[in-house]
Design brief:
The protein is an all-beta fold. The protein has no helices and eleven strands. Strands 2, 4, 5, 6, 9, 10 and 11 form a seven-stranded mixed beta sheet that branches. The chain has a four-stranded antiparallel beta sheet with strand order 1-3-8-7, with no helix packed on it.
């Protein structure tokens, strides 16, 4: 089994910064695209940012210029640096990992983190 552990969420004032981390563990053979999504009550989960194994990134228009996604392949970890935070960024943030793992044979599956709360308020 593959498990994702998220950390870094919390309460921050408008204009502040946070860095989210998501570490994958288990019998991982390789990791393909990794990403961050967020969700607020009454809304669908939306893509915030994603990054491919080759390092190409994609961002939602609402966070371009403020957020930066990165990954450390040696640690099987993806990060989301969040700067100039706005109240509209308040949400539960989930990491998503597309990976190949070994369990008797090789499998490919998408895993979701447990979610971490980010609250931007004065």
């Amino acid at each position: 089994q593959v498990q994702l552990v998220e950390s870094g969420g919390g309460l921050v004032q408008p204009g502040g910064s946070l860095r989210l981390s998501c570490a994958a563990s288990g019998s991982i053979f390789s990791i393909y695209t990794m990403g961050w999504y967020r969700q607020t009550p009454g809304k669908e989960r939306e893509l915030v940012a994603s990054i491919t194994s080759g390092g190409n990134s994609n961002y939602a228009d609402s966070v371009k210029g403020r957020f930066t996604i990165s990954r450390d392949n040696a640690k099987n970890t993806v990060y989301l640096q969040m700067n100039s935070l706005k109240p509209e960024d308040t949400a539960v943030y989930y990491c998503k990992v597309d990976c190949m793992y070994y369990s008797g044979s090789y499998y490919r599956r998408v895993y979701w983190g447990q979610g971490t709360q980010v609250t931007v308020s004065s």
